[in-house]
């Protein structure tokens, strides 16, 4: 039976220049491969070693990129290795099969959101009303499914995020702070639900996962084995669970370590 590997991308497998965490002397820094260009500028990287590991993983398992990015944001990433047959975008709102949205899956997600949580419009209105223009740089709605703010972290009041999380919790939404972005996401919109669907379709009996943020917790809990890097929301809160390994590595070297662990487990599933 195939092994399914579902991994978050940003700050798990791929890293912006600000998130690389290259703490070694320059002469010992790993060689980097650019895997995303946006507006003619290099945006995301992995080590060359990680690129080879991902290529090998594509031959050993069903690799499923699992991201909160929109489809458009995901499709500008050029990962090494064979093109994934499945990808999960918009935190589970879109299941791509050979690059094309599965319309039935998306319809089922919309139905759950309508039944189980406050509407997106209410959340967007609250964000616009309560966020201070002094530290907000952008308001965004992603795929008509969830919202996020781009902020200046050094100006962001710590209590504001906590207050937003309480307000959202009472309406069936969750809040996640990742780098310069504050996400407000409906609770029924999960990566884990989409990963379970891919596992059902592929017949996978073993699911491996990795992620760094609060939005990845459900993904890790749904997997048979999981890994989280030494940075990010989950590390900052010392989040852990059975079968989850907290790695010490931070930054781009954590991505390399995660891929080594995926490959080792996929080749020896027992």
Automatic annotation (TrEMBL):
> What residues form the membrane-spanning segments?
none
Among its keywords, does the record have Hydrolase? yes
Q: Which residue spans adopt a coiled-coil conformation according to this UniProt entry? A: none
The entry's keywords: Hydrolase
Kindly give the InterPro entries that the UniProt entry links to this protein: HAD-like_sf, HAD_sf, TPP-like
- Tell me the domain of life: Bacteria
Q: Does the UniProt entry include the keyword Hydrolase?
A: yes
One molecular function GO term is: hydrolase activity
| Name of the protein this chain belongs to | HAD family hydrolase
């Amino acid at each position: 039976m195939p092994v399914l590997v579902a991994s978050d991308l940003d700050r798990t497998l791929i890293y912006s220049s600000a998130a690389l965490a290259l703490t070694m002397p320059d002469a010992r820094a790993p060689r980097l491969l650019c895997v995303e260009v946006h507006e003619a500028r290099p945006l995301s990287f992995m080590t060359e070693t990680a690129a080879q590991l991902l290529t090998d993983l594509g031959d050993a398992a069903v690799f499923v990129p699992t991201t909160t990015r929109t489809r458009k944001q995901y499709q500008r990433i050029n990962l090494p290795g064979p093109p994934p047959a499945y990808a999960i975008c918009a935190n589970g709102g879109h299941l791509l099969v050979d690059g094309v949205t599965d319309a039935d899956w998306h319809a089922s997600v919309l139905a759950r959101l309508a039944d189980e949580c406050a509407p997106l419009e209410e959340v967007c209105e609250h964000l616009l009303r309560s966020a201070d223009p002094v530290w907000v740089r952008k308001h965004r709605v992603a795929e008509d499914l969830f919202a996020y703010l781009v902020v200046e972290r050094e100006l962001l009041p710590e209590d504001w995020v906590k207050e937003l999380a309480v307000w959202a919790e009472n309406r069936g939404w969750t809040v996640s702070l990742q780098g310069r972005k504050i996400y407000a996401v409906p609770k029924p919109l999960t990566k884990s639900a989409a990963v379970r669907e891919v596992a059902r379709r592929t017949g996978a009996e073993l699911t491996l996962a990795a992620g760094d943020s609060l939005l990845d917790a459900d993904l890790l809990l749904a997997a048979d084995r999981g890994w989280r890097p030494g940075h990010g929301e989950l590390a900052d809160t010392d989040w852990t669970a059975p079968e989850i390994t907290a790695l010490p590595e931070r930054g781009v070297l954590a991505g390399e370590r995660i891929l080594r662990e995926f490959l080792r487990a996929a080749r020896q599933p027992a």
